């Protein structure tokens, strides 16, 4: 059996199928890892309030959320990296003029700067969460925001990338882009957590499938891309397992010798 290790799992397309279901074998594998005294953690682009039920179901209290901007270790906030508000205000004004809505996000909630918009509904609906942004155009005032969503068709985010160098833009849906602090990533959040936990590089593992997992999978020594992952993601991972719909997690854990 491998030495005690820490394993970080992405959620969408990794732990959860594309129908946002948790496969039975995946759940069993997570609890088997815990029985072997491995540390199981989540690394996701989601906000904490978007996967609270999953954390409870899997009994996980260590996670990297917002692609590394809000990190929790054993139920306690360990590290935060909020967005700079002045350039975000300017971006929001520009987006409003382009009919590109934005959604402001902190660790507790998310609020849209417009009352309603088809792009917001179309993309948020795909997450299948019981949480939809309500309208508050001033939600950014007086609070830390860890991510903002910009809603625009593919390619139209280029004008914002050129104008706002404080931010990184990561597309996750045909009409939606994550706005993150420049240089922020899951890899940075994982680094903060493993510093505290003290796991050696050879005892660190990560599973993912999306473009926002690329830095994590190219940084963590034992990285596993899902079979359903983007080809660019597979190219940076050490291993490639089966698809999430084909028990990819349990197969991958066996592949790397953790099960």
Describe this protein's structure.
- It holds the Pfam family Hydrolase_3.
- InterPro entries: Cof (IPR000150), HAD-like_sf (IPR036412), HAD-SF_hydro_IIB (IPR006379), HAD_sf (IPR023214).
- This is Phosphatase.
- It comes from Anaerobacillus alkalidiazotrophicus.
- The protein is of the alpha/beta class.
- The protein has 2 domains: 6-80 and 184-255, HAD superfamily/HAD-like (Rossmann fold); 85-181, Hypothetical Protein, Haloacid Dehalogenase-like Hydrolase, Chain: A, domain 2 (2-Layer Sandwich).
- Helix content is 30%, strand content 22%.
- It has 9 helices and 14 strands.
- The chain has helices spanning 24-35, 52-58, 85-97, 118-125, 158-163, 186-197, 214-219, 231-236, 248-255; strands at residues 6-9, 39-43, 63-65, 70-73, 76-80, 102-105, 110-112, 134-135, 147-150, 167-173, 176-181, 204-208, 222-225, 239-240.
- The chain has an 8-stranded mixed beta sheet, with helices on both faces. Strands 8-7-6-9-11-10 form a 6-stranded mixed beta sheet.
- Strand 13, helix 8 and strand 14 (239-240) form a beta-alpha-beta unit.
- The radius of gyration is 18 Å and the shape is globular.
Lay out the secondary structure:
Layout: E1 6-9, H1 24-35, E2 39-43, H2 52-58, E3 63-65, E4 70-73, E5 76-80, H3 85-97, E6 102-105, E7 110-112, H4 118-125, E8 134-135, E9 147-150, H5 158-163, E10 167-173, E11 176-181, H6 186-197, E12 204-208, H7 214-219, E13 222-225, H8 231-236, E14 239-240, H9 248-255
Parallel strand pairs: 1-2, 1-12, 2-3, 7-8, 12-13, 13-14
Antiparallel strand pairs: 3-4, 4-5, 6-7, 6-9, 9-11, 10-11
Helix pairs in contact: 1-9
Protein name: Phosphatase
GO cellular component, one term: cytosol
GO molecular function, one term: magnesium ion binding
